[in-house]
Specification:
With 215 residues, the chain is mainly alpha-helical. The chain has helices at 20-25, 35-42, 46-55, 66-83, 92-95, 101-118, 133-149, 159-174, 177-213, and strands at residues 5-6, 33-34, 87-88, 98-99. The protein has a two-stranded antiparallel sheet. The longest helix has 37 residues, at 177-213. It is globular, with a radius of gyration of 18 Å. Residues 1-17 have low confidence and may be disordered.
């Protein structure tokens, strides 16, 4: 079993982590890579970086099967954050999952330019919503159910929760409380969209069967 790695920024948050654009750009896209190898290559930066890396591909055009590969690790990460764990742990079955070279290359090429622009405005601020253990547990509490939503077969339903988790990850990694607050807004929007879509699907199903059986 791979030894646990410290969270980047730690849940103690004493040292500012590297910028996520540099972390993403440093990913080796010349060959397939396991999730465990990716986590190990990130070292102490692994937690916030992986949270972002696993969320963003669900919000951008990626090869089929992306959510199946990245969804479960995202659930495990957000659960650990919600529980206030001080170390990052991934089970062997997750660590051995392979991410294809094509998927890695597409992710890095699409995300790095976006990250470079976002980081012009990201900075440590509003620490009360991001730097304490309680604040980080709250981020996990919000991000965990969003990770569950990613598994639901809702057309385009992955985009809002993915953006919300990405914002929360950015805020956590850069100690930017404003990004966390934006993530909370996206989270509320995700729940609203899910409720609206679910209601529409239910109403459509009822109307269909009423028409079919003449009820």
């Amino acid at each position: 079993m791979q030894q646990d790695k410290s969270f980047d920024g730690g849940l103690s948050g004493k040292q500012k982590p590297s910028r996520l654009s540099d972390i993403v750009h440093s990913i080796d896209t010349n060959q397939d890579m396991s999730i465990g190898e990716l986590a190990d290559s990130l070292g102490e930066r692994a937690f916030g970086a992986l949270l972002f890396i696993f969320a963003v591909p669900n919000a951008i055009p990626m090869p089929p099967g992306t959510s199946a590969i990245l969804g479960l690790p995202l659930l495990i990460l957000t659960w650990q954050l919600m529980m206030g764990r001080q170390t990052l742990w991934l089970p062997d079955i997750i660590r051995k999952r392979r991410i294809s070279r094509a998927m890695l290359e597409r992710f890095v090429s699409k995300v790095t330019p976006i990250m470079a622009k976002l980081e012009r405005v990201l900075k440590p601020r509003f620490g009360i919503v991001v730097t304490s253990n309680l604040a980080e547990r709250l981020i996990g509490l919000v991000a965990f159910p969003l990770s569950l939503i990613l598994f639901l077969p809702i057309p385009f339903g992955n985009i809002p929760p993915s953006l919300a988790i990405a914002c929360l990850a950015l805020g956590l990694a850069e100690r930017d409380g404003l990004a966390v607050l934006v993530g909370y807004l996206f989270s509320a929007a995700s729940v609203g969209i899910l409720a609206a879509v679910s209601s529409a699907l239910y109403a459509g199903a009822v109307a269909f069967f009423q028409t079919l059986f003449g009820v």
